[in-house]
Amino acid sequence: MQKHNSGADFALTTSQTPGSSKPDPILIADKIARQFGGLTAVNVDHVEIQRGSITALIGPNGAGKTTFFNLLTGYDSPNSGTWSFNGKALNGIPPHKVARLGMVRTFQLTKALYRLTVMENMLLGARGQKGESVLRSAFPWIWRSQEAAIQEKATAILKNFKLIEKQDDFAAALSGGQRKLLEMARALMVEPEMVMLDEPMAGVNPALKQSLLEHIKELRNEGKTVLFVEHDMDMVHEISDWVIVMAQGQIIAEGTPATVMGNSQVIEAYLGAHHDTDLTSEGA
Amino acid sequence: MDILFIIQQTLSATLGVNAIIFALAAIGLNMHFGYTGLLNFGQAGFLAIGAYSVAVPVISFGISLWVAFLIGIFNSILFALLLGVPTLRLRADYLAIVTIAAAEIVRQIARSATFRDFLGGSDGITGKFASEFFDLNPFKQGLTTPILRFSGNDLWVVITGWILVALITFIMWVMVNSPWGRVMRAIREDEDAVRSLGKNVYLYKMQSLIIGGVIGSIAGFVYALSRQSVQPDNYGTALTFFAYTVLILGGAARVFAPIVGAMIFWFLIVFIEQVLRAGVTSNIIPDWLIGVNQVGQIRFMLMGLGLMLLMIFRPQGIFGDKKELALDAKA
């Protein structure tokens, strides 16, 4: 396996401690705290995400991973803290502007736009569309050529994701796994620098899982940064260059997949709840 | 029973002034509800603002009717902003609550004693405020044929009204099939997904509210002009819900739905009424079953029954796609 290529080399030289600094971080977060009433859902002191890497964010249920995602992408605001993407502070920036800056997310509960066709879902993703302005929309000759170019690009991505035969179907007609694929393909239409995937493998059958994995690796090969939340440890092990572990809102460990999974604190936090089941399935 | 008379009355209503008013009101709602998923329960408020905006400036201030149209459009944009700024960032149900209340506020202000000098109180406004429009009428003698009958003024409203409906429908058709319309339909499906793709959802929802509201106020223009009077109680919540009925009858998110829906709506109301009336006066329907004075109520009962049957057997409306309707946006 040649998984330590290109953007992954940093893993060999970076300190494997929580909040360690990376040689070329694309995303830096500092002292992010989010309380819901008396509950502190997220309390991250410092974290950096290396550019061009695949970073996994893992942790037991309720660790605050999705909340952290929501905070980073502008869907929720922290009670305190600062964070920046490509050197630009993101405090108070609404989600659509975060996306325009090049950080595009997907959702844990897939948000395919059901009564739009697969192709329409894709076309929606493209940035800077002239025809999306209310005044220009009534004059098709202004946007028609751009629309054709976007369609061409969408067709290429759909072919790559093997969804091209479905292009005229409503997104609701896709299977759960195909919807995950579509959501990821649609995110690529935005031409992001960084892709944030919230549980991309949840509810996906093994065959599709493999192709999703390939697509995620492809993103890194194209120089994009990937941060994903996942519960599937096999997947985390197989594709991630770096793993960040959250528990009870805090980052408790960071490092290469191998080191992190050997970390006693991680095993305690992450596997403690399912200790028995995990042991028996591994022992079998 | 005079069958020809029934046909004449029914067809004249199907193509008549009221069908135009409801078609326009429903086109506006189609923008809001059909394409963007905004639950506007205050469309009557936009109609009222349109109607009062053409009557008041002309009667109370002696302003030209043509300028009054511009005032009406300006006022409806203002009303849309007033509704949208506080509510469009919130969940869809808040808009529903606020719009239904706002439309009632508009009506209560219009009929209040305080502004009686300008807005006419509960009597509304009557007067020749539309003379500038009817002076242009080349068909002053009206139209009288065995199957269609319009007075001179009505004929002029009907001709200009349907041209207006066709024009607005055409522009809507182009716009909803553009990338802009695609963003609108996407917002209807899931706002957060659209945000994640870099679109300013708030701005789009505001545009939808304004465009649908302006079309609603144009329906109010037609309402006021055709009657040369404005009565505040014509702009109650019932008007909004009839407009929704028209839209759903035709099929939400279908560009021709409001037109066909409005025609069917008025066809049914007048046809049922005329048949009942003819039946009662010629004693085919016995007096102990339905009296002459009950016809008005019973036509709405039968209308309601018809709508229920439609919703059971054709829930997607005339133009809708049943498969599409079955796709629950939240599933």
Give a written overview of the molecule.
Chain A: GO terms for molecular function: ATP binding; ATP hydrolysis activity. Chain A: It holds the Pfam family ABC_tran. Chain A: InterPro entries: AAA+_ATPase (IPR003593), ABC_AA/LPS_Transport (IPR051120), ABC_transporter-like_ATP-bd (IPR003439), ABC_transporter-like_CS (IPR017871), BCA_ABC_TP_C (IPR032823), P-loop_NTPase (IPR027417). The complex is a heterodimer of chains A (284) and B (331). Chain A is of the alpha/beta class and 284 residues long. Chain A has two domains: 186 residues, Rossmann fold, CATH 3.40.50; 61 residues, no CATH class. In chain A, 39% of the residues lie in helices and 22% in strands. In chain A, the strands form two sheets. In chain A, strands 6-7-8-3-9-10 form a six-stranded mixed β-sheet, with helices on both faces. In chain A, a hairpin with a 2-residue loop joins strand 9 and strand 10. In chain A, helix 4 runs parallel beside helix 7 and helix 6 packs across helix 7. The longest helix of chain A is centred in the middle third of the chain and has 21 residues. In chain A, 46% of the residues are buried. By secondary structure, chain B is mainly α. Chain B has a single domain, classed as ABC transporter involved in vitamin B12 uptake, BtuC. A two-stranded antiparallel ribbon of chain B has the order 1-4. The interface between A and B is large, with 44 and 32 residues.
